[in-house]
Amino acid sequence: MLKRTLVANRGEIACRILRACREAGIEGVAIYAENDSGTLFTELADIAVKLEGEGLAETYLNQEQILKIAIENECDSVHPGFGFLSERADFAQAVMDSGLIWIGPSPEAITKMGDKMTARITMEEAGVPVIPGEEVTGGLEEVLQIAPSVGYPLLLKATAGGGGKGMRAVHKQEDLETEARAAMREALNAFGDDRIYVERLLTGSRHIEIQVLADKYGKTIHLGERECSIQRRHQKVFEESPSVALDAELREAMGEAACDAARAVAYEGAGTVEFLVTPKGEFFFLEMNTRIQVEHPVTEMVTGVDLVREQLRIASGEAMSCGPLNMRGHAIEVRLYAEDPSNNFLPAIGVLKKFIAPTGPGVRLDTGVREGDAVTPDYDPMLAKLIVWAPSREEALQRMGRALDEFVVLGCTTNVRFLRELCTNPDVVDGWTTTDMIDRLWPGGWSSDQSGKISDAGLLIAAACESTNHGKIVTSSGGKSLIPSPFSTINRRYP
């Protein structure tokens, strides 16, 4: 078993991994930049080491410095989490070359699945259905030549990328050159590689991913699906399991295809194979994420499998502890962002003056922030993941709505009200979710009724008065409050 693991990440996922390490009896080492001093994940670690330098390149992306810290602190393993260096084959190789255990798939698997063209060829050879498309190696002129044969609408995607970076939808010929230049420029800035892939855009499709798990003993299984169709800017905001679009036959077919994809690259550990599913029930390989996913708690809630614990177990050389797929009930996850949905989802900054999370049966919160923490433009604006479980989808939606009503965040604008509205949207309730749903429902952008909005200062004063008994709550003859607590109604009035 592993003895001491360095977590090469920060925030919520670092907290998640450090807690799993603690439960498994493994010491956890955290690394942190100066602007992360005193944050939650540094306090959960057995050892916390400050990174030298400023900015991502000098801190969380500095492979040499991270490996030096791991060796100096006698770590035997490195867990990359998601994002940052998690899908960098060169970092995985460097970890292994240093004599440490890489908690993830092999560098070869990362390389094959990280390059979209290589992944496509590998999947075709494995018999996994792929979307019609072609890679561009000859620059802009080749894009203009290839596009008509692929057909419109089409999608331009960074060959070396992910996370929605370097991705542009093109619906007509006259927009192609502008969007291609933008995609190539963004791909170069994000990944140092301006190659793009031209792919047929499957409109009205669902984004459904399959969680896979594989150990060193030839066992590869899937743990069901996650429906991730509700997205904005190609980034997921609402995930659930199981999907209403899949019956037992389709689930098994997609699950076996995902396992075939993993076997094709001799995969070990936890990974996710993403598919697009058409209204006709056809499914096509999209990509494989060779890491733990942001939305992994959804699968954990319906299967009872601790995916991070399984990662640690597999990396230690043990067999996975999972048996056959056994899905129970329904789980939903929403991503709470510090952003303004009514202003094109622009990131928001500020100090979390109040951060009161919901509780109750079937409610889970994965977060890396606490009240008093500052939200800065330095990192991704995700504050937390709120996950609920219930026996049925209807009950899960009701529970999520209740939990969001209870969530209190003061100090920066969040997407709480937007998420709350999704829970009662007829398309969501009926299960008619597609990847273009947000753009389709709010083509001019989402807006909220701002009537009754009051300032942070007013809410904080009211809350302080209530909590210290300095304010008077007026009641009716029946004892019912005529002036509700600011906490009980805040998210109905405050975004």
Summarize the structure.
The protein has 495 residues and is an alpha+beta fold.
Explain this structure:
By secondary structure, the protein is of the alpha+beta class. The protein has four domains: 4-103, 3-Layer(aba) Sandwich (Rossmann fold), CATH 3.40.50.20; 132-200, 2-Layer Sandwich (Dna Ligase, domain 1); 206-441, ATP-grasp fold, B domain (D-amino Acid Aminotransferase, Chain A, domain 1), CATH 3.30.470; 456-493, no CATH class. Helices cover 35% and strands 24% of the residues. The chain contains 18 helices and 23 strands. The strands form six sheets. Strands 14-13-10-11-12-15-22-20 form an eight-stranded antiparallel β-sheet, sandwiched between helices. A five-stranded parallel β-sheet has the order 3-2-1-4-5, with helices on both faces. Strand 2, helix 2 and strand 3 form a beta-alpha-beta unit. It is globular, with a radius of gyration of 23 Å.
